[in-house]
Design a protein that fits this description.
The N and C termini lie far apart (55 Å). The protein has 333 residues and is α+β, with helices and mostly antiparallel strands. Helix content is 31%, strand content 23%. It has two domains: 187 residues, 2-Layer Sandwich (Fructose-1,6-Bisphosphatase, Chain A, domain 1); 129 residues, D-Maltodextrin-Binding Protein, domain 2 (3-Layer(aba) Sandwich), CATH 3.40.190.80. Helix 2 runs antiparallel to helix 3 and helix 5 packs across helix 8. The longest helix is centred in the N-terminal third of the chain and has 23 residues. The structure holds 1,6-di-O-phosphono-alpha-D-fructofuranose. The site of 1,6-di-O-phosphono-alpha-D-fructofuranose has 12 residues, from loops.
Length: 333
Amino acid sequence: MTPFSLQQYLSLEQREHGLDPALARLIFGISDACAMIGSKVRSGALAGVLGLAGTENVQGEDQKKLDVISNDIFVEAVARTASVSGMVSEEVDHVIRVPDELPVGPYLICFDPLDGSSNIDINVSIGSIFSILPAPRITHDVSDADFLQPGRNILAAGYCIYGPQTQLVLTLGRSLVMFTRDPATGTFRLTREEVKVSESAKEFAINMSNQRFWEPAVQRYVSELLQGAEGPRAKNYNMRWIAAMVAEVHRILQRGGIFMYPRDSRNPDRPGKLRLMYEAAPMAKIMETAGGAATNGLQPILDIVPQGIHERVAVFLGAKEEVTRVTEYHKAK
Ligand code: AFP
């Protein structure tokens, strides 16, 4: 039997678990955006989408053409669903309002339309990340304050990975499911249900080139991993670094592991590199739903109340045993 399509899955969720049709519509709109971005990614130079856009985003980072294109695709697809009152994107410094001529809805969405930009031009996996929050007000006039909710409020979160396959990974809160895009029909089909992340791990991901800037807790934790079977952990660990969190999380969901992007002394005022609202929090929701964990070294990422829409945060996520250990090392200092 052909596996369930995303549309069939969302219809079933509406019938059996009371999924709000406006939320189903929003998720379907996101899947449309991901399919369009995936097709641009696949065409690459043939579609003229590689290289720099000649602009900077709010983080002061050079925007690639695909960052800008993906942002525009996301904004348009989401606004057309009539399900949101506003959007926050990595690529735009202010909240994005729904144009007056389109209806608004009861949700807010935060997204990174293209995570792992440095991988675009070298044809390595990249992705899109999103999280959906309740809108405190249904209005065309959203403000930053409407979005400043802890990750515990997230109603749905997911990502789409553009790799050898295009896959959409989604949680509506109860479980984590994976869809694979059928290139023949363009439909996302359910290919894994009840995804669980194993509690222990044999693999870690961290940008080792920053080692000299890490805090003592991270130095201790990683040094113990590197000592392998001869060290206190009494087993060998493997290391991977893809430089796109979507791809690291995807690997951890399939075969376990821990991903870290700690705060460091390169920029003491910056509490990490990754962004809380559209990178760390949705991935934390995904990890916790799959039985894993996600902290900033001190507290669960989902408990952090954001102070700003583009706030950064340190991230430790994946296998519960490993995340618990590195978090304890932070608290023990
Ligand atoms: P961009 O999307 O801005 O390229 O950043 C990707 C990312 O936020 C995250 O996906 C990676 O894990 C991390 O940055 C890689 O950072 P380094 O280049 O410092 O290793």
